[in-house]
Design a protein that fits this description.
By secondary structure, this protein is mainly α. The chain is built from three helices and no strands. It is rod-shaped.
C-alpha cells in the first residue's frame, strides 16, 4: 500500500477522533455555561448546545476533509510522520480557534445578560416624584 494512502487514513482517523472528542467535551461542559447565559431556560440551553455541536462538527470535519490532500510524495516513514505532524498541527489549531470563538461569543452573551439583569429594578416603581423646582 502506498504510504500516502496510509497517511490519509491515519490523518482522517486522528482528526475526526479529535473533533468528536473536543465536541463532546465542549457540549458536556458548555451546557452549564449556556444555561447560565440563557438564565436557566434548560430546553433552550439544550437546543443551543446541540446547534453549536452540529455547527462545530460541520466546520471542523469540512476543514479536515478539505485539508486532506497532500502535494508531496510520501515515500519513507519519516515523510509520513512529517506530513502527519503538519496536518494534525493545523487541525489542532483550527479546533482551538473554534473553541475560543465559541467561548468568546458565549461570554459576550453572558455579560450582556448579566448587565440586563442588573439594570432591571427588583420591584416595579410605586409612584412618581416631580422634579425639584417644578
Amino acid at each position: 500500500m502506498d504510504l500516502t494512502v496510509v497517511a490519509y487514513i491515519i490523518y482522517l482517523l486522528i482528526s475526526i477522533g479529535l473533533t468528536v472528542w473536543v465536541a463532546r467535551t465542549l457540549s458536556r461542559n458548555g451546557r452549564v455555561f449556556i444555561g447560565d447565559v440563557l438564565q436557566g431556560n434548560e430546553k433552550l440551553a439544550d437546543a443551543v448546545n446541540q446547534l453549536l455541536v452540529v455547527g462545530f462538527y460541520l466546520v471542523n470535519i469540512g476543514f479536515v476533509t478539505l485539508y486532506l490532500r497532500s502535494g508531496e510524495d510520501i515515500v519513507q516513514a519519516r515523510d509520513l510522520f512529517e506530513a502527519l505532524s503538519v496536518k494534525l498541527g493545523v487541525v489542532l489549531l483550527v479546533l482551538g480557534v473554534m473553541h475560543l470563538g465559541n467561548v468568546w461569543v458565549l461570554n459576550k452573551m453572558r455579560r450582556r445578560g448579566i448587565m440586563e439583569r442588573n439594570q432591571t429594578p427588583p420591584v416595579a416603581p410605586q409612584g412618581w416624584t416631580a422634579p425639584a423646582g417644578a
